[in-house]
Amino acid sequence: MATVSPLARRLLAARGVSLPDLRRRAGVPDRCFPTGVRLNRLCGPDAWFDEEWMQDLRDLAIPTHLIHRKAFEWTHCVYGLRRLGALRPSSVVLDVAAGHERLVFYLANRVRRIVAVDLYSGHFLDTEESEADPDFLTDPDKYAPFPYRRDALVAFPASGLALPFRSERFDAVISLGSIEHFGGHDAAAAAMREIARVLRPGGIACIATEIVLRGPSMEEMFAPDVFEEKIVDDSGLIPVERMDYTEPPEELFADPVVIGANIDRNPHIVMGFRETTWTSGVVFLRKPRDVEYLRLWLAGGTVRRLSGLSRAGRGTSTARPSDAV
Fold first, then answer.
1. Does a structural domain hold residue 319?
2. Is there a contact between 28 and 241 (Cβ–Cβ < 8 Å)?
3. Residue 78 in contact with residue 99, Cβ under 8 Å?
4. How far apart are CA 90 and CA 252, in angstroms?
5. Whole-angstrom Cα distance, residue 126 to residue 130?
6. Which pLDDT does position 263 carry in this prediction?
7. Would you place residue 28 in the very low, low, confident or very high pLDDT band (cuts 50, 70, 90)?
8. Residue 293: its pLDDT value, please?
9. What is the mean pLDDT of residues 170-188?
10. C-beta atoms surrounding 197 within 10 Å
11. Distance CA 119, CA 121 (A)
12. How far apart are CA 146 and CA 32, in angstroms?
């Protein structure tokens, strides 16, 4: 129970109920909003037919004809954070394993502070996209796709497994297309606990990663049950709605995108390697306040994911706290 507050721990002990028991019995809404694109879902071309979602894509300066998993991750993150009220002028947002993606520049124009952390060294310097160039730390303008507020962007090296911030520091924490590369499923779960720790009560986390559609899973992706365990349950946070695992259209499975063969294909939604196919999935999670936990406990009624109703992530970081934000 390292991710729950002392109050929540005492209440759980008084009821004789373990955190896993509560998670198994917990419920989340089927949908957070009755209209619009679902928030917790897999990538699919249907999102490109929603005008509100498309406006966010245009605001990110992404070509409207580009039907791509990465475009989906960026746009859907903005769409969900905006609808959930997390993109306020006063917000402080953390992007874990940010590289130099365009989302940090977009956020610099809309929130008080965006903090981008990544290793900015090692394996990803040698990828085709060169996703985490160290010169981003000193010259972010080089990577900016549009004008942005330079004073709102802070970037420095840090590991997602030991975030160098005090607990409950950020209004929103995002990590897109990266957590699957942190060193395996258990490492991803550890990163989720760190994200929960630095997130303020009432804050929103947005995680995008690779979800297996069909065939055997692999180390750097998540079968749905592993995703639910390692990304959702282990975080101690509450999904804002049920995850929808509806697959992309069947025709996209017939000729999937294959790295090294047709990587530049459009649409770029279903990936394939041997018998395995996968795509991007995005989940939004909320960190409730202790008062919510206490209210449900006193009511003695339906328990709704009390693992999260506990100011998740009050644990102490092993990293040296940073005063940079």
1. no
2. yes
3. no
4. 41
5. 6
6. 84
7. confident
8. 59
9. 96
10. 25
11. 5
12. 32
| E strand residue ranges, the chain | 41-42, 92-96, 113-118, 153-157, 170-176, 199-214, 238-239, 271-273, 276-286
27 vs 214: CA distance, rounded Å:
27
Are the CB atoms for 297 and 14 separated by under 8 Å?
no
Q: How confident is the model over 206-230, as pLDDT tens digits?
A: 999 999 999 999 889 999 999 999 9
Tokens encoding 193: 């606990």
Q: Is residue 318 part of a domain?
A: no
Determine the 3-state secondary structure of 322 from DSSP. coil
pLDDT band for position 140 (cuts 50, 70, 90): very high
Closest CA to 206 of 160, 175, 238, 237: 175
Given this model, what pLDDT does residue 46 score? 98
Segments forming the whole domain that contains residue 73 = 6-299
CA distance 34 to 243: 15
> Is pTM, for the whole model, over 0.85?
yes
Mean pLDDT of 167-192: 96
Asked if the structure places residue 166 within a domain, the reply is yes
For residue 316, the model assigns a pLDDT of: 47
Give the mean pLDDT of the chain: 86
- With b for 16 or more beta-carbon neighbours within 10 A and e for fewer, the 65-98 pattern comes to eebbbbbbbbbbbbbbbbbbebbeeebbbbbbbb
* d(C-alpha 171, C-alpha 175), whole Å: 14
DSSP class of residue 47? G
CATH number, domain containing residue 159: 3.40.50.150
The domain tally of the chain equals: 1
pLDDT reading at 295 higher than 80: no
User: Quick one: angle between helices 51-59 and 69-83, nearest 10?
Assistant: 110
Q: Which two tokens stand for residue 255?
A: 């000729």
**Are the beta carbons of 42 and 244 closer than 8 angstroms?**
yes
Interatomic CA distance for residues 118 and 103, integer angstroms: 14
String of DSSP letters for 104-173: HHHHHTTSSEEEEEE--SSGGGGSTT-TT-GGGGT-GGGG-SS---GGGEEEEE--TTS--S-SS-EEEE
Residue 184 lies in a domain: yes
